[in-house]
Amino acid sequence: MGRKRTKSGKIRLTEVAKLAGVSPITASRFFRNPSALSLSKRERVDSAVKELGYVPNLAARALASHRTEVIGVVIPSLTNSVFADVLRGIYDASEQSRYSIQLANTRYSILQEEKLLRLFRAQKPAGLIVTGINQTPESRNVLETMDCPVTQIMEIGDSPVDMMVGFSHYDASFAAISHILEQGRRRIGFLGARMDPRVQRRFDGYRDAMKAVSLFDPNLVVTTTVPTTVTLGGTLFADLLAQAPDIDAVFCVNDDLALGVLFECQRRQISVPGHMAIVGFNDLEFMASAVPSLSSVRTNRYEMGRHAITMVIDAIEGRRPQQPVLDLGFQLMIRDSSMPPTA
Amino acid sequence: MGRKRTKSGKIRLTEVAKLAGVSPITASRFFRNPSALSLSKRERVDSAVKELGYVPNLAARALASHRTEVIGVVIPSLTNSVFADVLRGIYDASEQSRYSIQLANTRYSILQEEKLLRLFRAQKPAGLIVTGINQTPESRNVLETMDCPVTQIMEIGDSPVDMMVGFSHYDASFAAISHILEQGRRRIGFLGARMDPRVQRRFDGYRDAMKAVSLFDPNLVVTTTVPTTVTLGGTLFADLLAQAPDIDAVFCVNDDLALGVLFECQRRQISVPGHMAIVGFNDLEFMASAVPSLSSVRTNRYEMGRHAITMVIDAIEGRRPQQPVLDLGFQLMIRDSSMPPTA
DNA sequence: TTGTAAGCGTTATCAT
DNA sequence: ATGATAACGCTTACAA
Questions:
Q1: Are residues B175 and B294 in the same domain?
Q2: A133 shares its domain with A233
Q3: In angstroms, how far is D7 C1' from A55 CA?
Q4: Is-contact B209 B174, C-beta < 8 A?
Q5: A212: which of A326, B16, B41, B128 is 20 to 30 A away, CA to CA?
Q6: Is 0.85 surpassed by the pTM of this model?
Q7: In this predicted model, what pLDDT tens digit does every residue of B275-329 receive, in sequence order?
Q8: Does A152 share its domain with A273?
Q9: pLDDT in tens, B14-38
Q10: Within this chain, do residues B185 and B291 fall inside the same structural domain, yes or no?
Q11: CB contact, 8 Å: B59 with chain A?
Q12: Chain A residue with Cα closest to B286
């Protein structure tokens, strides 16, 4: 490809400046800090930009300024609808801004996460959003030397790398179990799949809530590291029934499992909530319309995404939040599946 | 934050070249076309890169070479799990390559799509993946002047912009209806939500299959532009029952609707498949474990993503596919919900 | 508020 | 196969 005709069709900042009758640097400032220009020049540059259809060259900008307008987002899964909602919040809010999102997926591997974080650091993003608070020491180190605002999402804890937005999975789980206990259930099973750190904390909440009333029993617990599916919910529930036939309730670490349990109950003609209560986690949309409607713990995923990206952008632009840790809480959605048992 | 020490710690290609005892341009070639170096220099550069922990500056590379290693992906939704699967395929395959993904979401708006496509074109991506074949004339024009390989995904048709990978929604829908008819059902309802172009083609397949046996009746059709949910499936089904109480089957344009119909049947004590057959579309995981198990049309979403990105990368690197249009087909997943009715 | 000068780190071109 | 040179388009630092 010829390099001679570069001069002809290309619209650079120089062309804009020429047409506006200013120096290139003034045209440059028009984009980065318009209020620094006099009104007249600002208008002249503005119309020159429009007239020429000028589009900034981001590579040149990044090279000269040593910074990019890219915010990295590291999540463990693309298909888990929990993260889909978070992402929607992130993308929605980012579109109002000049920043673009660079998405990366760890597939729940902390080593993959390490690799990705190193990659991101090398590319000097303007900001970063990462999932969770259980990074490896090496990942943690990378995050701390990131030289840009970082927000950890999905859960909250002490010692944020920088900022955090999420909620307490422990508290949410504890509250769910307390609710089930209040309905008069005693033998509450626990079903867990893909035991990532947040799911682990949900287990901790379950265990402590049960221990608080001296009802904890290891036989009530069935977990696996296998990824969650609805089908798996049925399978795990069958296992649970085998090792604890007298259960009268099941707490599932997510809604897919809960739906699978419901289906398995239907298959076995176990009445819900008559003989079995079911409570899920996340409050996906289908929970409300199942028959019977399924109780769950609602989490504010979309808002989590919005807040995370907003906090990062604000921090990039010098508006650091007063409070670095934002707790978005949760809500118990009590529905038919956790009504009291029939005599 | 220090900004003075830019010169000190920086490792540029120049440093690598110096350590290796070659010129910078030779070091540069090491990355882009290693086989052009003599073995000895190649080894020297290689070890220099490792010793210094050199990381290329992508901005400088893009500025100097007038090209990026970014592949744009334009999809209508982040939360629709159909696209989540496609994305997983895209990301999985892209990680094996040097290309990174720039994701954008149109929210099913063709005007938003136009804007995004213009934005992408201005940034000169190395390749592009877009959803569907129903771009506006303006979008179509942008795509045609994109100056990089483009793959349209999700469906196939005549006149690809460049390449295509997908399947025929019309054929898939036609096949599903034929199956239901074969079970002896006559009054087959159609439930559609968010009538995007692909859903519209599923309707066409339904209509033509019904007309072919002279069973088409507008009263059998209920559609809405509202986004799909499970709850909506129940609502639409109620509407359908109101306008055609004698239906004996329902074809839903996606599985969420189908699940909602199942729940509504349970609520109304309509036996499935005894009095009502249900068939969905996409074959999401839960369909197989519902009670009764729900029939659906399986689509190869993950593979679609993988093929799309692979075709784009191959084309970028000069390996154009012999066949620009790839049909990934579909499979009828026949389950209990579409067994023949009881007397 | 505006401008001048000097790169930013890499690659294209052309020559050897 | 290798290298010298000149961009690439923009911004920082400093000056006025």
A1: yes
A2: no
A3: 20
A4: yes
A5: A326
A6: yes
A7: 999 999 999 999 999 999 999 999 999 999 999 999 999 999 889 999 999 999 9
A8: no
A9: 999 999 999 999 999 999 889 889 9
A10: yes
A11: yes
A12: A230
d(CA B247, CA B220): 8
We report the CATH number of the domain holding residue B275 as: 3.40.50.2300
Report the distance separating Cα B103 and Cα B121, nearest Å.
14
Nearest to A231 among B88, B259, B288 (CB): B288
Does B248 share its domain with B270? yes
Residue B307, strand partner residues = none
- The reply to whether the CB atom of residue A57 sits less than 7 A from any atom in nucleic acid chain D is yes
Chain B residue nearest residue A88, CA to CA:
B78
B279 lies in a domain? Answer: yes
Interface of B with A in 101-120 (CB under 8 A): 101-103, 105
B174 and B292, same domain (yes or no): yes
**Same domain (yes/no): B237, B153:** no
CA distance B114 to chain A (A): 15
Cβ atoms of A267 and B243 closer than 8 Å: no
Instruction: Residue A157: count other Cβ atoms within 10 Å of its Cβ.
Output: 16
Which of B81, B123, B285 lies nearest to residue A230, judging by beta carbons? Answer: B285
Number of domains in chain B: 3
How many Å apart are CA A272 and CA A312, to the nearest integer? 44
Which DSSP state fits A194?
S
Could you identify the residue written with the tokens 């939360």?
A: B79
DSSP A138-173: HHHHHHHT--S-EEEEEE--SS-SSEEEEE-HHHHH
Asked if strand D contacts B28 at the CB level, meaning under 7 A, the answer is no
Residue B246 DSSP symbol: T
In this structure, the strands spanning A150-155 and A325-327 are unpaired
Please report whether residue A1 resides in a domain.
no
Which residue, B5, B21, B56, sits at the end of a domain? Answer: B56
Range of the domain at A306: 65-167+301-329
CB of B19 within 7 Å of some strand D atom: no
Q: Residue B126 falls within a domain, yes or no?
A: yes
Q: In b/e form, how buried is each residue of B3-20, taking b as 16+ CB within 10 angstroms?
A: eeeeeeeebebeebbebb
Q: Using DSSP, state whether B73 is helix, strand or coil.
A: strand
Confidence of residue B3 (pLDDT cuts 50, 70, 90): very low
CA distance B123 to B139: 16
A288 to chain B: which residues are within 8 Å by CB?
A: 231
Of B34, B33, B15, residue with least CA distance to B24: B15
* Closest alpha carbon to A187 in A236, A269, A243, A260: A243
Percentage with pLDDT > 70 across chain A: 97
Stretches in chain A below the pLDDT threshold 70: 1-9, 343
Q: With b meaning 16 or more CB within 10 Å and e meaning fewer, what string describes B196-218?
A: bbbbebbbebbbebbeeeeebee
Q: CA-to-CA distance for B47 and B39, rounded, in angstroms?
A: 12
- The answer to whether A3 CB sits below 7 Å from nucleic acid chain D is yes
Residues B160, B249 within the same domain? no
Partner-chain residue, chosen from A87, A101, A285, that has the shortest CB–CB distance to B230? A285
Whether B149 is covered by a domain: the verdict is yes
